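For consistency, the fold was encoded as tokens, as this record shows:
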Amino acid sequence: MLLERLWCLFLVCVLLALPCGCDGDDDDSATWNDDDTDAGSDVDVDVDGDGVSVEDGDCNDNDDTMPLQDADCDGVLTQDDCNDSDAAVTETWFGNYTANSASEVAAIAACVAIDGSLTISDSAVPELSALLNLTAVTGDLIIGNNSELSNLDGLASLAMVGGDLVVHGHDSLVNIDGLSTLATVGGDLSFLYNAVTELSGLSGLTSVGAMLYVLGNPALTDLDGLSNLAAVGGSLSVHGNGVLTSIDGLSNITSVPGDLVVWNNHRLPNVDGLANVTSVGGDLLLNENHDLSNLDGLASLTTVGGFVQIVDNRVTDVDGLVNLTTIGGKLFVCYNDFLTNVNGLANVSTVGGRLLLSRNTALTDLAGLAGLISVAEDLEVWENHLLTNLDGLASLTTVGGGLFIQSNNGLTSLDGLQSLTSVGGQLSIGSNPALTNVDGLSGITSLPSLLEISSNASLANLDGLSNLSDFADGSLYLRDNPALSNVDGMSGILAAGGDLFIERNDNLASLAGLAGLTVLGGNLKINTNAALCQSTVDAFIAACTIGGSVQDISGNDSGC
């Protein structure tokens, strides 16, 4: 019995000592569930004795110098292979690549080219030395929001970007000298919200295929680094660079196919760097440059295809635009507190959009617009308080939209509009306290829309409108003209398709000038005219066919 128990115990010990065929410890004693990579054997092959077997990744097991150094077995070591997971690629990365860490930048250190876009963004990447081999990016190169990046020295070999180059949001970026080899950018060049003081690193750049955008760089003082740039394929925008004092670095540019924008550069005294620009295909926007005292740097400019905007600058004149002949879009001259004249616009004959002259508090005359013949959309003259006349508009014959003369405190006469024969929209003369007559409107024979004359404290008559006869679709508003005594100038109007409102004209005593108006398509209000007999109002209503309603005829003189 004792011997049997000892024999059983021996058998148990033997069984416990065996691996039970599971090969869980990979001890080369079993093959049926082998977790290494040899076929049918648990013995790893290491021919060259370098300590790395074929099964563990040695793609050349006859050379003990190449363990784990060529992952794709293309004969190029990992550290020299741009993409060591693809045997067909050694120097070029095909496709887009995004790096969000220094290690991800280092992973493409062997790349000479990126056939796609490269983005290094939203990460703490202190330097780019791993990219010293990089000469070209065929797509976009975007480097953004890297709080520790102080320079771009790692891009010293980069000669070409086929798409957009965007460098933005680097609080520590103090120079971009690493871009000195860069010659061409095929798309946009956007340099936004960086800490640099100058752009000398772009001195090799000769062309930008699309837009050049320099925005919001608070320490940038000049654009001299762009002195070799000869062409941009789109818009050029210099915007919101608070201490920028010179744009002379743009002096080799001769045309801007898109928009030319110089906006919100508060220390910029002039635009001399644009001296060779002859044409702008899009808009010309010169806005909110609070130290900009002249536009002389634009003396070569002859054509603007779009909108011209000169707003809130320190300019005293616009003489720099003396050779400008064509404005394809709107023209806005507004909020220039030191502007005394617009003589520099003397060669502009047509404005292709709206013309707005507003809130130029020192402007005394419009003589510089003597060559203007037509305005395609609205013509508006607002709140130019030293302007006494519109004589500079003496050649103007056509306004395609509305005509608005509003709130010019010193304006006494509209005589400069005597050549005007056509207004395509509303005609509004309002809140000009010194205006005594509207004689300058004598050439107007038709109006398709509203005629509003209101709040002109000194206006005594409407005789200047005596030739207006075609008003079949219009409305007439006469309001708050306390010196107006009659409406004799309206005698040519026989029908009006809209409303007739005559209100709060304290000295108006007669409606005889409207005796011929017998058809009114809209509503009628004749009220609160203290000197106008109610009986006169009643007689007018009785003689007129009114398509709308009589809404208010109260407050007139009921005692006569």
